[in-house]
Amino acid sequence: MNLDWNHWQVFLALAEGGSTAAAARALGQTQPTLSRQLAALEAAAGLALFERHPRGLRLTAAGQELLPAACRMREAAQGLSLALAARDTSLAGTVRLTASEIVSAHFLPAALVPLRAAHPEIQIELVASNALEDLLARSADLAVRMTRPTEPALLTRRLADWPLGLYAHHDYLARHGMPTPATLAEHVWLGHDRSTQLIDGFRAGGVDVDREFFAWRCDNQLVNWEALRAGLGIGVGLRALAARDAALVPVLPEFVVPPLPLWLAAHRELRDTPRLRLVFEALVTAWSAGPA
């Protein structure tokens, strides 16, 4: 059969996502398009590769047998993509960068202003997301991460530790008073929905809390930041960002919030690509001394 890599990408996305909705999100396509590509693949292979069940899709026996070969096909395609990208010596082109929502909105634009002025031929494609984009799969060329990347194929650099603190709007404090270690439960806390990061942090500091301790729960950093600025409750924030808003007041100095490490990562095979190296060094220059 004539192997169409686009169809096998759909096969892998469905196998790993377990549903057309998950695969559509992963590939940036519509569900009808994926369904048509799957039908074309199954027709070309002469095999039923998936069967439906109440929660989505699962591989048939034939699909299970083909999955390892499809994974090897993806690895080969990624290797070819990296080899070609590493040979690109032109400054003109696109660098795909991923960073968290807060970093993307409040720190990244200013960090890239000098680069844009010096090298307007370099275009930036930004993925503003807290999800860990896969550099090995070329979902991004550069990643700004708050945890140390562990993949051995990545070139990483720790830029700085960004201090965090607990803050509340002065209007909130006027209504509820200044919190103390003895009155934590009497206040409105801004937390996460699915992430346990803040729960784990409180427990590590000796305060045993659960999900219900946080009366406001959202995993979107930008939404939580705006909720803090609106006076909805007490939350964790970057000191450099809080310093920009005179209405935000630091609270509970007794609780030391560990700083947020900032890492920059790229694939090792891309380190000699000139435009990628320029963007990498621009971020190192902007943030090695901390956020600005």
UniProtKB/TrEMBL annotation:
Gene3D superfamilies: 3.40.190.290, Winged helix-like DNA-binding domain superfamily/Winged helix DNA-binding domain. Keywords: DNA-binding, Transcription, Transcription regulation. Residues 3-60 form the HTH lysR-type domain. Belongs to the LysR transcriptional regulatory family. This is LysR family transcriptional regulator. It comes from Pelomonas parva.
